[in-house]
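Quick one:
INPUT:
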């Protein structure tokens, strides 16, 4: 009985193992390659799958999700013979599990080597300045070459990114000095522009102030002239309205003579020729009240003296 029990136990174990090998559960976003006697038969997709135990075997399980692989820094020579170290990151996704298994031995290593060689070809045609400022161009060119080469491997390269581009230390020091000089230059230019703009605004303000001041003075002068003209018109109209005679005018002129003589600069008086007639009229008016009005010689002498004074005070006219 004991050998029969042992055989039954062995059969149960074999059945259990066969069941385990028959039922294959593939996780989501994964695939499995099935080989029968070492030859590819089919690809198992996500879910519950049945295989023939001890005949079919699982060759490889492949993750179909997008993968991120960083590559170590690679020395690359630019067109102007400068060595730069470039770090790259590849974003890829397996689209065909069978091709990724049988078309290339190790697609990760193949992508890395292809990235290095392609990067050297691209950077070799650029100088250092263009290399540092053309990341998008380098990424696009590298992605195009990788996507075309890895298509037959069942791999799609989604993105290629350059993590860092490190030029030599001496070049970094020179670039830092150049950037500092450029910043100082821009600061000096901005300072000069600010001073220039400030001076322009100050000049504009002074100009506007002068214009407004001149306009104010012109308006004030116009108002003063208009006031004086109005005063003259009023006086003229009043004189004409009052029908002033020559005697009154002569009397007013005599009252203005002391004001004309005021000041140290008044060394010469210009007496109009009509003053004689006015004085004659005034003398005639005064003679009516003078007890000696009958002495015509005195009046004539006074009048003649006036004319003589008139001739002496008037400057010679060339």
């Amino acid at each position: 009985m004991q050998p029969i029990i042992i055989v039954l136990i062995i059969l149960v174990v074999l059945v259990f193992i066969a069941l385990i090998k028959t039922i294959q559960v593939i996780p989501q976003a994964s695939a499995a390659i099935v080989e029968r006697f070492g030859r590819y038969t089919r690809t198992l997709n996500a879910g519950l799958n049945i295989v023939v135990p001890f005949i079919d075997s699982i060759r490889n399980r492949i993750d179909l999700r997008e993968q991120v692989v960083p590559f170590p820094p690679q020395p690359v020579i630019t067109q102007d013979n400068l060595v730069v170290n470039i770090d790259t990151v590849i974003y890829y996704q397996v689209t065909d599990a069978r091709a990724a298994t049988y078309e290339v031995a190790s697609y990760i290593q193949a992508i890395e080597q292809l990235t290095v060689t392609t990067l050297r070809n691209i950077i070799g045609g650029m100088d250092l300045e263009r290399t540092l400022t053309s990341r998008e161009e380098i990424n696009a060119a590298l992605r195009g070459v990788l996507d075309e080469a890895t298509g037959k491997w069942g791999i799609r390269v989604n993105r290629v990114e350059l993590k860092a581009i490190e030029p030599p230390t001496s070049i970094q020091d020179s670039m830092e000095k150049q950037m500092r000089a450029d910043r100082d230059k821009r600061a000096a230019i901005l300072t000069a522009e600010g001073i220039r703009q400030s001076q322009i605004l100050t000049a504009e303000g002074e100009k506007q102030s002068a214009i407004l001041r001149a306009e104010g003075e012109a308006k004030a002068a116009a108002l003063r002239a208009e006031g004086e003209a109005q005063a003259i018109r009023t006086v003229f109209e009043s004189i004409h309205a009052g029908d002033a005679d020559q005697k009154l005018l002569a009397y007013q002129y005599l009252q203005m003579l002391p004001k004309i003589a005021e000041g140290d600069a008044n060394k010469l008086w210009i007496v109009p020729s009509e003053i004689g007639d006015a004085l004659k009229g005034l003398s005639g008016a005064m003679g009516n009240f003078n007890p000696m009005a009958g002495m015509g010689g005195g009046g004539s002498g006074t009048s003649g003296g006036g004319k003589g004074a008139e001739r002496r005070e008037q400057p010679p006219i060339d």
